[in-house]
Amino acid sequence: MPACLELSWKALSCFAPLVDVLEILPVGKLAPLPRVPVWVLGVAHHRGHLFVVNDLGYWLTGKISSPQNNLRWLWVKDEHNSVAFLIPEPKGMGECSSDNAWVWDGSQPVPDQTKQVIIDFKGLLRNPSFTQVGSP
């Protein structure tokens, strides 16, 4: 069972496998982008890297995340993309297992907001709805 960060959007409990995470960053300055989907918040710069920042809460709940002091950026990377997601401050760490949770890669809506969700960031970064202009 991989180590995970526990995140929460109201009734929805999510887990982010640490193997996918480069860093957890404080929210910083964003350069806005024209004509992008509502979940794309802008472009950020960190340690010589540029990456797009996305509202993960919008993908999970269908609602834009409200500005709060306890938000963070979760920076993830695969072989083609370097992306950050706006997340609530992690609740803690633990182990996650797909035995009692639903593994989500953005290809379908989250079916039950009371069930635990393991976020498959690598699958999300390969999802055409995420990588192309469209809507989740």
Topology:
Elements: E1 3-9, E2 12-17, E3 21-26, E4 40-46, E5 49-55, H1 56-61, E6 71-77, E7 82-88, E8 92-95, E9 102-104, E10 117-119, H2 121-126, H3 128-131
Parallel strand pairs: 2-10, 5-7, 9-10
Antiparallel strand pairs: 1-2, 1-8, 3-6, 4-5, 6-7
Structure overview:
It contains three helices and ten strands; from the N terminus they run E-E-E-E-E-H-E-E-E-E-E-H-H. The chain is mostly beta strands and 136 residues long. Strand 1 and strand 2 (12-17) form a beta hairpin.
Please outline what is shown here.
With 136 residues, this protein is mainly beta. The protein contains 3 helices and 10 strands. The N and C termini lie far apart (28 Å).
Structural class: mainly beta
Biggest sheet layout: 5 strands, mixed
Q: Whole-number radius of gyration?
A: 14 Å
How many individual β-strands?
A: 10
Distance between the termini: 28 Å
Strand content: 35-45%
Task: Provide the low-confidence segments as ranges.
Answer: none
Mean pLDDT: 82
Count of helix runs: 3
Question: What is the percent of helical residues?
Answer: 10-25%
Give the strand line-up of the largest sheet: 8-1-2-10-9
Order of helices and strands: EEEEEHEEEEEHH
State the shape.
Answer: globular
